[in-house]
Amino acid sequence: MKAVKYLVVIVVFLWNMMGVAQSNQEFEKANELYNQEKFQEAIDSYKSILDSGLESAELYYNLGNANYKLSNIGPSIYYYEKALELAPNDEDIKNNIAFANNATIDAIDVIPEGVISRSINSFTNMFGFDMWAWISVFCIAFFVVLFILYYAARLSSKKRLFFLGSWVFLIIGIFAVFFAFKQYNFLENNQYAIIFAQETTIKSEPNLRSEEVFVLHEGTKVKVTETVNDWKKIKLVDGKIGWIPATDLKEL
Questions:
Q1: Contact 62/76 with Cβ under 8 angstroms?
Q2: Residue 229 and residue 216 in contact, taking contact as beta carbons nearer than 8 Å
Q3: In the chain, what percentage of residues exceed pLDDT 90?
C-alpha cells in the first residue's frame, strides 16, 4: 500500500511540474506575440494560462499592457489592479495604472484622508495579509526563543540583551497581527470593481424603471457594497451611490 501511495505522490508531482513547464512555455509564447505587436493573440495566450488556474503579478501586468495597447481601458485597469493586489509595492504597476486612469473619462474628486489615517493605510498596504501573518509568526517565535535564553543566561548583560530583544520582537509581532487583521478586514469589507461598459447609467434603485442618478464610463473603479439579483450597488470615492447592472462591471 505504501508503494502505491508513493507512486501516486510522484505521479501528481510530475504532472504538476509538466503543467508549470507548459505554462512557462505559453507565457514565453505570449511575450513573443506581444513583442511582435500581436496584442490580441498575446491576450488570448495570457488568458489561457489564467484558465489553467495559474496567476502571477507579472501575468496580470502583461495582460494589462496588452489591453492598454489596444485601448481596452477597462480591462487594462482591471488587470493592473489584479497585479497590484499580488505586488502592492511594484512601481511599474503603479505607474501604468496612473497612465491608464488618465485615459478614463470620469473625473471623480477623492475625499482627502487625514494624515494619521493615510499613514496607517500606507503602512498596512506595504505587505499583503499573508506576509503580515508570517511576520507575526516569526516575531512571536523569536520572542519565545529569546525569553528562554533570558532565563537560561547567567550574565546580567546577556539577560538584559535577551530581555530587551524578546520584548522588541513581541511588540513587532503584535503590530504585525494588527496590520494582518486590518488588511484582512479591508479585503473582506471592500469589494471593488472596474466598469467594463463604454457608458452605463447608474440608477437610484435596482431596476430599469428607477430614476437615473449619474453616468459612468469604462475604466472607472467603484466599490461594490450590495448585490440584488442582476444589480450591484456601488459607491464612488466622492461618496455617490447607485445601482448598476452586474454585466456592466467586473469585480476584482
A1: no
A2: no
A3: 59
Closest alpha carbon to 183 in 114, 94, 116, 121: 121
Q: How far apart are CA 46 and CA 59, in angstroms?
A: 7
Q: Which amino acid would we find at residue 29? A: K
Describe the strand order of the beta sheet including 199-203 as a list of residue ranges.
212-217, 199-203, 241-245, 231-235, 221-228, 191-195, 249-251
Q: Which residues pair with 234 in a beta bridge?
A: 224, 242
Cα gap 119→113, rounded to integer Å? 9
Are the C-beta atoms of 149 and 162 separated by less than 8 Å? yes
pLDDT tens digits along 95-124: 999 999 999 988 777 666 677 777 777 777
**Among candidates 179, 75, 185, which has minimal Cα distance to 131?**
179
Residues 44, 60: Cα–Cα separation, whole Å: 13
3-class DSSP state of 206: coil
On whether the CB atoms of residues 243 and 231 are closer than 8 A, the answer is yes
Give the span between the Cα atoms of 246 and 81, in whole angstroms. Answer: 19
At 202-222, the pLDDT tens digits run 999 999 999 999 999 999 999
Which tens digits make up the pLDDT trace of 78-94? 999 999 988 888 899 99
3-state secondary structure of 127: coil
| Element containing residue 245 per DSSP (H, E) | strand 241-245
Instruction: Flag whether the pTM goes above 0.85.
Output: no
